[in-house]
TrEMBL record, chains A, B:
Cofactor(s) listed in the protein's UniProt record: a divalent metal cation
Top-rank EC class of the record's enzyme: hydrolase
Name this polypeptide is given: 5'-nucleotidase SurE
Gene3D superfamilies: Survival protein SurE-like phosphatase/nucleotidase
Cofactor note: Binds 1 divalent metal cation per subunit.
Length: 259, 259
């Protein structure tokens, strides 16, 4: 039986330690091709490049542990997936994995996440897809403890498929050497970011801002990704790209719009 | 009674004719403050600026029909909303409207839409929000026929509120002078883009790509935004930022993940 073809991408860029580790894990399960941004693209959401040109080139980053074929791309994570599927891959992949992101994409972070936008782009194209994130923002985070959960979830996805229209958002807690408590299927916790803009003056006398903020949890449920992570579990949220709030259609049909 | 405070933004930039027209419409309903990108941001999805600086300045674009207060911002549409709420507005707005986009944000386009990301950002912050788009990509599109539907939907939103966690995605067909057939509450049509990359050679001999593609409808339902627009109706899709595919949780609980 031929091995599954796995497309690996991310939003932190092709040299990011999280991506390099994910490539190693995926090589245990299948044939890997990498198409990833040539520079960090965090916070890019589902941006695509429509008004400028895209560059891509074949690269070798890590001859020993890298994939046989790797491409860097000047575009966003969603661009990488589009380019991979249309131009670079030898055939339609069996799976697309994105990450391992340096930092959480749980709760409302999914909306801003380039990691998840790459996975969602693959999902829109009908390819089973998973985004992986470690809740540790540092560049030299230790990704080795994520191996077991990532291999387990990926193997189940390859075996069972993923329901159509669904993409998995997997977040892994930072356990400081302890094993994780287990893996939980969750819903996205309600939350937002309380922004604070740090206003500064440039050397030339021009005011500018840095966006900063604090995460504000609005949800006490014990079935959420945020709760699972706080208890040391890996969270798996089935995520969809049909954004329709079906429950609200009936309400809105009571509005007076056609008189 | 004091007039409602309405934040107006977009993704085509502060000088875009669609935004200028939306400002005029909103001035019929309330006090308007504009915070919009200083350059076009189409296809930016829900990108935010976290690794670079943001600039904003007070501007006057159209002394006669513009808003008394307008700010341009160097960031993405989502940045504009964050900056408006935290730094620029005198108080929390009663409504945020985004658009009028030059081109459709119906169906799967909502995922890539900077117009909708601005509205969704406001929704995450608990502010009623609506994105408006005209299905005409040209810069000199005729926005005057959109007035009646936009005022009707906005007035109903101000009167009734919008259900919590829901943001409206309104698309208006291009009717070439005919009146619209009416306004329909819809769900997002299933579709994707069949990408095609146009590969070219730069004067310096470097290969590059342009992303192009064709819309592919995967949905024959007559309750979708795509169907409503094709019949000359304005489509209103209640859109949510809880991306959880709740229906898939039970399926995934059958996976073998904790043995």
């Amino acid at each position: 039986m031929s091995k599954p073809l796995i497309l690996v991408t991310n939003d932190d860029g092709i040299t990011a330690p999280g991506l390099r580790m994910l490539i190693r894990f995926m090589r245990e399960l299948g044939d890997v091709v990498v198409v990833a941004p040539d520079s960090p693209q965090s916070g890019m959401g589902h941006a695509i490049t429509i008004d400028s040109t895209l560059y891509s080139k074949k690269v070798v980053i890590d001859p020993e542990h890298g994939a046989p074929e790797e491409y860097s791309c000047s575009g966003t994570p969603a661009d990488c997936v589009k380019l991979a599927l249309q131009e670079l891959l030898p055939r339609r992949p069996d799976l697309c994995v994105s990450g391992i992101n340096h930092g959480s994409n749980a709760s409302i972070n999914v909306i801003y996440s380039g990691t998840m936008s790459a996975a969602i782009e693959a999902g829109i194209e009908g390819i089973p897809a998973i985004g992986f994130s470690l809740c540790d923002y540092s560049w030299d985070a230790d990704f080795t403890p994520t191996r077991e959960a990532i291999l387990k979830i990926t193997a189940e996805a390859l075996n069972n498929g993923i329901p159509p229209g669904v993409v998995l958002n997997v977040n892994i807690p930072r356990t400081k050497g302890q094993p994780v408590q287990g893996i939980r299927i969750c819903r996205q916790a309600r939350a937002n970011w309380k922004e604070r803009f740090d206003k500064r003056m440039s050397p030339g006398g021009r005011e500018y801002y840095w966006l900063t903020g604090e995460f504000e949890l609005l949800d006490k449920g014990k079935d959420t990704d945020h709760w699972a992570l706080s208890q040391g579990y890996v969270s798996v949220v089935p995520t969809q790209f049909d954004l329709t709030a079906h429950h609200a259609i009936q309400d809105l049909n009571n509005w007076t719009l056609n008189e």
